[in-house]
């Protein structure tokens, strides 16, 4: 028996697996090799196995583990040689032209723009009222010029967003860095918490209030 392998990593395996199966069944998976295999032999021919479970430390740590297996086994279905990165993937000229054509010909109808506008009503942008740092202003004014700070440095110079958790009496409980962290530790739906925070819903969620704080 010949085994063709693909490695991946996720902090939410159930959702990740459902996404892969859905994309394969609807013939829109990002991996053309995997999609062709599923089209020819069926999704049931694919076997999804957890090869290692780790205590999540950071996204970087997770990608390092994934990269280890990619380097060790050289999996057939992994198009990218780097974990969760397009670095090193060579695109043909015809593919590049096709991507360019698709982007240029993208058209959003008036009806779609209206729906997008309606969906955003009542949502306060997290950076509203926050002034840009001097480094960021320089970058906006001068554009991408040699000698300016890198994208990572610019990102670090921006204000950071945290989520504060309060009890029913609005006593501070804990500061969280991401909604994913809250979901992993408290087993709560991160999308619902995000909705409560961004839409300023004045109700507790599972016995706690959550509020976005900018530092």
What is the CATH H-level superfamily of the largest domain?
GIY-YIG endonuclease
What is the general shape?
globular
Query: Main β-sheet: number of strands, strand sense, barrel status?
Result: 3 strands, antiparallel
CATH architecture of the largest domain: 3-Layer(aba) Sandwich
Number of strands: 3
Q: What ranges have pLDDT less than 50 throughout 5 or more consecutive residues? A: none
Question: Count of helical segments?
Answer: 9
Percent in helix: 40-55%
Average pLDDT level? 75
- What's the SSE pattern? HHHHHHHEEHHE
Give the CATH level 1 class of the largest domain. Alpha Beta
**CATH topology label of the largest domain:** GIY-YIG endonuclease
Radius of gyration: 22 Å
Strand order of the largest sheet: 2-1-3
Amino- and carboxy-terminal Cα gap = 56 Å
> What structural category do the secondary elements indicate?
mainly alpha
List keywords for this structure.
3-stranded antiparallel beta sheet, GIY-YIG endonuclease, 9 helices, single chain, 3 strands
